[in-house]
Design a protein that fits this description.
Layout: H1 7-10, H2 12-20, H3 23-29, H4 33-38, H5 44-48, H6 58-71, H7 75-84, H8 86-92, H9 107-118, H10 121-132, E1 141-150, H11 158-179, H12 189-201, H13 207-234, H14 241-262, E2 283-285, E3 293-304, E4 307-314, H15 324-335, E5 340-343, H16 350-358, E6 362-363, H17 370-373, H18 377-404, H19 415-447
Parallel strand pairs: 1-5, 5-6
Antiparallel strand pairs: 1-3, 2-3, 3-4
Length: 448
């Protein structure tokens, strides 16, 4: 049976033209892959030219990150789609042969780790801003606000955290004793497991019950730690870096929870650990009615011309009003001038007001004192416009990123990969906006 050849795949020029007409092709035009790849060092395989040739180069790895957030897919589903979708292969700069398949479903995760270790957010944002500037209007008008991109962890409580430590320490001991051909250690693990599960099943947990079970779990954890130390002193034990870090985290949790149980009432705990698997996560108090406390990275975001940039990203809580001047500095660094700048009421400190006045920057801050008497209707109108811009465009971008670009719950596992996840999620949202603007500009040019 004769089969006609597909002209699309036999003609490279026709293939490229067809690709650029797809949604992914339009997104591709909005991302400066060549410029971004120059800011990231080549992989060891690319430098040595030894071993099996990797599926993706640096540009392909960057494309993988954008694809993941654009399509809101898991790593495994993303690889499956690339195997069967020619437009996604074009986007990543590869072309699979018939019956050729990528079997490694952890490739996006591996690239995320690599980019997380070599990510320079400031330099990459400078490259992206210069590429997107021709498609941005009103670059002299800026706005900034802070939000929290939550990590994908269970809601932390002291009791759950303590039990996780007990369970991990118990498993470490039993596995090590099994390797040394020793019998299982005697401990009241089942008794404390029943105690913990009974407490968790209670709908209403009193403070007295919480204090009681905390002290019991602290004593049990202390006995387990003593057992581990005795085993470590008697036999030479070598641990991986990951397990050694986990044991250090367990010790810190014990010290913090012991201080809370037996220390001064109401004493603050510095660098409080809320997750055993992610010890870098800190509670971020946001003061919202639905979520008074969030757990993840706090980002102070600058919005210029409908495009958002990261001014400051930290897993530690910080007061965003101290970054007001830095936000204006970032806007000037990326786009030149800043004549109008809006922000939330928390930014309206005397220091920030004086700075804005000295730089002749129109703000949306409500004036006070003598300024209130000199306040004109024109200035009031400008303040309303800036407020509307901040409340619709900037705050709307938070919801857009969290609902459509995988920033609602960050599922990365380390501090570096979470930062990488957040950066590419935000930049993918920006690239989608720029892609629409490029398409509109091309339509106007054709119509003219």
């Amino acid at each position: 049976m004769n089969r006609t050849t597909n002209l699309l795949f036999s003609d490279k020029e026709l293939l490229d033209k067809s690709f650029l007409q797809t949604d992914l092709g339009k997104l591709y035009l909005a991302i400066p892959f060549d410029e971004i790849s120059k800011k990231i060092p080549p992989t060891p395989n690319e430098q040595s030219l030894m071993g099996c040739k990797p599926w993706f180069d640096i540009k392909g790895g960057i494309a993988l990150m954008f694809l993941k957030h654009y399509l809101s897919m898991s790593d495994a589903m993303l690889i499956d789609r690339i195997n069967t979708d020619w437009s996604m292969q074009q986007f990543c700069g590869i072309s699979l042969k018939p019956f050729e398949r990528i079997l490694d479903r952890n490739l996006p995760s591996s690239w995320r780790v690599y980019f997380g270790n070599h990510l320079d957010i400031e330099e990459l944002q400078k490259v992206l801003a210069s590429y997107w500037k021709p498609y941005m209007e009103d670059t002299r008008v800026g706005s900034q606000d802070a939000t929290c991109y939550e990590s994908h962890i269970t809601y932390p409580t002291d009791i759950k955290l303590l039990w996780d430590c007990c369970e991990k320490q118990y498993v470490f001991i039993q596995l090590q004793r099994e390797k040394l051909c020793l019998r299982k250690s005697r401990s009241n693990y089942k008794k404390h497991l029943l105690l913990f599960t009974d407490y968790q099943k209670k709908r209403k947990k009193t403070k007295r019950q919480e204090r009681r079970i905390r002290k019991k779990l602290l004593k049990f954890l202390f006995r387990l730690m003593e057992g581990w130390n005795a085993l470590n002193n008697k036999y030479p034990i070598t641990l991986s870096a990951r397990k050694a870090k986990m044991l250090e985290t367990i010790k810190k949790v014990y010290v913090q929870q012991h201080k809370k149980a037996y220390g001064e009432k109401g004493a603050t705990i510095e660098d409080r650990i809320v997750s055993l698997s992610k010890p870098y996560i800190r509670p971020i108090v946001r003061g919202k009615e639905v979520k008074p406390v969030e757990f993840g990275a706090k980002v102070n975001k600058l919005m210029v011309g409908g495009i958002g940039f990261i001014e400051h990203l930290s897993f530690d809580a910080f007061n965003e009003n101290t970054h007001y001047q830095n936000g204006i500095y970032l806007q000037r660094k990326l786009f030149g001038k800043c004549t109008h700048h809006s922000a939330d009421a928390i930014y309206a400190t005397n220091k920030n007001r004086k700075y804005a006045s000295s730089q002749k920057i129109q703000t949306n801050f409500i004036p006070k004192g003598k300024q209130l008497q000199q306040y004109t209707s024109q200035a009031d109108q400008m303040r309303k416009i800036l407020n509307k811009y901040r409340s619709t465009v900037l705050e709307g971008s938070f919801g857009n990123e969290k609902n459509h670009y995988l920033l609602n719950r960050i599922k990365a596992k380390t501090e570096q990969t979470e930062k990488c996840w957040i950066f590419f999620g935000m930049m993918t949202a920006n690239a989608s906006i720029i892609a629409n603007r490029i398409e509109e500009k091309q339509k106007l040019a054709r119509a003219a």
